[in-house]
Amino acid sequence: MTAEIGHFALILALLVGIVQAALPLYGAHHGIRPWMAVAKPAALVQLALVTTAFGCLMQLYITSDFSVLNVVSNSHTAKPLLYKISGVWGNHEGSLLLWVLILALFGSAVALFGANLPPSLRARVLGIQALIAVGFYLFMLLTSNPFQRITPPPLNGNDLNPLLQDPGLAFHPPMLYLGYVGFSMAFSFAIAALIEGRVDATWARWVRPWTLAAWCFLTAGIALGSWWAYYELGWGGWWFWDPVENASFMPWLAGTALLHSSTVVEKRDTLKGWTILLAIVTFSLSLLGTFLVRSGVLTSVHAFATDPARGVFILMLLIIVIGGSLALFAVRGPALVSTGLFQPISREGALLLNNLVMVTAAAAVLLGTLYPLVLDAVGGGKVSVGPPFFNAVFIPLMVPMIVAMAVGPLLAWKRADLAPALSRLWAAALAALAVMALAWAAMTGGPLLGVAGVGLAAWLFVGTLVELASRIRLFRDSAADSLGRLRRTPRAAWGMTLAHLGLAIAVAGMAAAGAWKTESIQAMKPGDTVTVGGYAFTFDGARAGRGPNYQLVAGAFRVSRDGKPFVTLMPERRVYDVGQRPTTEAAIHTTFWGDLYAVIGEAEGAAGAYVTRIYFNPLVAWMWAGVLIMVAGGVLSLSDRRHRVGAPARRAGAGVAQAARA
Q1: Hey, what CATH topology would domain 1-165 get?
Q2: What is the pTM of this model?
């Protein structure tokens, strides 16, 4: 009965979605307010129905109801409760249900907190959100029903992919989807603005918080996935330019450009058409990621679907959404006239440069991701586009952007002089040169990319602090005045500062881990010692053990430095009971200067020997710390009252009373 309730709730959600799409859009076009008002209750009802369906599927997983095919394919009675729950979205059908749940959640947020939106705009935004949802409802109900029964039910299930039975992968997909689907709000606002023919500073202020929230979630989701790959796959790296990784990275690049572009619309009433186009492109890349992961064209631990019919359906949905939105932009976009003018050397010019670099980088990643697929589809054979291509294209693009990030905030709006801004960055230049010299000396002369990378990180970090000091007029006014300005600095400005500082720290971690990682792969017997990164790793042997639903072999490494004990690392190799599939659990000890990383593989010969992999990854933890700071900056900026849609205006009486008390 639970499965039937969930299935029926999905059908009802489809019908409500059709109503939410049709009546408000028609009412907004003809000025019929009662029809426009249908959008709010319809969005709330749709959320209730999708939540019911999702709750039913979760209940089926928790109770191990093996009369449902989805549960049979992705669960097992021996699986811990956390992974029974995460198994709900660790598969094709469940992940789509999570997608529409988040879509309904964002739509309901606009319905509840968008009271200050013009009725016609709110009706159109919610109508477009519903159209997107209808496409995914049809996809699920016609090709990917998560509640399909199986007769006769088996005694037990097939279990979830062991690589997905991990806390990182339990929370990574919801975080990623909150980012993916969050950009649908910017898309819906953009399409609604094109229909109305109105884009101004007020529109930018409405759309910016949704974009910022989506950016925060997507940033955290990508970082969580990278962290999982780092410690779970046992290869010592954190990014491989895998097509599925690229599928999440492309909308992040475009979304970052959109976030900065909407600032220009809000502040200077320019770049209107460009911002609308970015909103369309960002969500289109999110949909493209869905197509790549769920169409069967990719083989990956993240890729679920292999049915060609599903791929064709998603491709048709992709064509309709992207093609239709771009066609509407081609017709209505030229009517969006910008009134703000600016010179190339200005704050607007710096933000535009940021946009161009980000979009170019996204296009390069898109090309490298799709080219092998297209070439194979037209009979050109199989080719591999891997890290060498992406690094050679992506890294040179990032250098001018990072340089400009320190300069841009020091420029005035509309028109500025470059020389005064550069003169204020003397401390940043000195810091960059000093860090590069230290890195060159410490790492005995290279590689150059690593030295340049940490130098750029120092330039951006100190340059961001220079901008903060300039904003509060540090050393130019009294300390009391500067402190007062610091206290009055808006949260949005603090958020920008934190995000730029976080990026600088992350860049330092990426550069050091990529340039100076050391590794050693060998077979070790108990008592053998290997020296990596100045640390001596002594293998003390391995022991067999058992986990909740797997058998394990745990190795022990005594790590010493300069003859003194430092830490003991206990990596594991697990073999899961169902399917007998192995996984690697790396042992990692993080220090300020780098990670000690040990992996144990298969037994090698006799005498207790095992294949082992030992790594020292310099500054790699800085990367995730920097990303966390970036997300914290986004959250802090989002808490600024100017960026909260639906924040109630202060009553006049309250303002008078406060003034009287002062």
Answers
A1: Four Helix Bundle (Hemerythrin (Met), subunit A) (1.20.120)
A2: 0.92
